[in-house]
Amino acid sequence: MARLTLPRLDVPRLGLASFRRRILFRMVFLLLAIATAALAVVLLQDEKDRSYRNYQQNFRKTQAEVMARLRHPAGLLALLNPGVSGAVTPLRPWVLPYAALDFDDQNKAQQAVEMAGCSVRYTDGSAVCAAVGNNAYSGGYIYLVGSFRAGDLIAREPTDLDVESVHRARIRLDMRGTTTAWVAPFERQSLRGEPLVRGRLTGFVEDGDPTLADARPVRDFRGFLWQSATCSAGGELPDCLRRVFYSIRLPVEAFRQALYAQPRPEWPPADLDRIRVHVQMLAPGNVPPLFDSNASDAIPPPSLEDLSQALLPGETLTITRQDSKGAPLVLKGREDNAARSSPLILQLIDRLPVANRPPPLEAIEVITTPVASFDVRLSGDARGIDRGLGVIATRMSWYVAAMLGAIGLAWLVIEVGLIRRITVLTRRAAAVSHNMQKDAPGDARIGQLDVSDLRGSDELGILAGSLSDLLQRVKDDQQREQLRAQRERDTLQAVGHEILSPLQSLMVLHPDAGDPAHRYVQRMQQAVRVLYGQASPSEALEAAQLELAPLDLDAFLREVADNAHFAGLADVRYASGEQPVMVRADAFSLEDVVTHILRNADRHRSPGTPITLSLETSDTHATVGIHNAGAAIEETRLERIFDYGVSDAATDEATERRGQGLFVARTYLAKMGGTVRARNVEGGVRFDITLPRAAA
User: Fold this and answer.
1) Residue 414 to residue 129: CA distance in whole angstroms
2) Where would you find the membrane-spanning parts of this chain (predicted)?
3) Closest to 298 measured CA to CA, from 150, 92, 83, 77
4) What torsion, rounded to 10 degrees, do the Cα atoms 492, 495, 501, 505 define?
5) H or E segment and range at residue 147
């Protein structure tokens, strides 16, 4: 099989209008990236300007907050105990901002301890504060104030000698190389049955004997205990746990002796931070303590270091004792030391313009305590704001970079995976359109449009693949059609030339116009002239010119029925009418139409049944009916049987049927202004040929 060679496409030069959407698309991504970076810079500048504007106001707020906290009893406690650090337990006495405690009054003792904030707290809700007064002449005592939870308290009766059968406190004091231990059983002072239990803790020096046979109470040991009347964690009295508050004053002989020494005693003692106190609250019997101050879950009270949380970046707090005892305490505003600032971002922040750059600020105040006076200096530097912003901006820069990277990746994926492929497809489609507009034969305009290289698994790839397959099929079909048309043209020309000569001789042999053979020879000559020199039968039929003239349709049908046996069509019946029915038609072409339909009816009629012709008229049209008994036509094929090439048998060497007889009938009738249709009727099939009637 010969293959046609299609010319290459002429690719036109596309104007700017063809690229404006791609340019717009790229500009949108570029502007989006610029806007993202600009937004980050603008937000950073706005944050810097706002931070600078609020700098002085925030500095004053910090100053007020720090001074208020230092003047509060909890702050005074921290100032009086600057060196307290390290492990929380065993307990070390704190210097209270009070000369002494009203330890025998529950409300006063509890309020003083809570305001001072000296309590060491535990996860079970227990608490204890070990402290001394800030005035040596108020007595050399250590105060123990705290609380714990316990059930119904069992008190010691005056005659009881065994302290292990009652609730009791055990206290141990380690000081200057000596250890003193006390045991203090609970003695009820409230009446039995009262919801609020109160009593005292009578102190005895512990010598290892569980009985108090020879023991004498310590005169200056004082302790009091109060138990709440309500359950602390639900339940019913008296079996539920209730809050127990205690207040104890321990006599310290070393402190008392120092009062009478010369010169005036130093207070607080220099070795106060080396004193250790251990407190246990015990239930009757040999059971675990209800409270142990040496428990591992102890939480220390607030200290001066906690003030650094109130300082802003760039602010420094310096606390100096006026009597020059101890080193100054320096606290700086919190900075995210774990985060690192990018030098480039710090340079960017430094160059960002602001309306006003505040100068360094400083404030000095004096805090007076019963023990000493302290100079408190608060200073601020705006550069700390830049460092803080640098840390935040460095952290946020990763998000900005991620956004820019996402924008760039999205652009790259769309550009490479979609836009460039669309560009290639657009150029090739434009080349096809450009070549189709040229004045050239059809094969020269088609060209070589190949989009197979754009195939892929995505939407565009599937579209390009489908288009490539479709174009290939079109090219193959066009090549086959051109070859077939050329072959048919050559065949028809050869056959027409060979047939016309014998037909000319037959006309000489049958010169009489009344001879049926003469009529059939004329029909054959007309058919050959129609097909001769055309590319295909369908083209020849479409181009055929018919000579329309008045025709008596009744006489025409009678003659067709009478001469049908000459065409091999037996038993064709027609009942002639009494009056002529005039139509405008080409007699030869109309005879071809009827003959093709008769041949089709003859092939499908039941053996031994006739083919019946009928004629019906109206004012405007005449209808010829051709009926045969036999199998019905499928409903889906009633219209398709008139298409070219549709047949009930494949075209091969053994058959002459090419599926063009009914196509010829419809084509000729259309040229004569008529129609033809097929329909299934009871017992067979009927073809209706409708022609317009000629004027009388």
Assistant:
1) 70
2) 396-418
3) 92
4) -110
5) strand 141-150
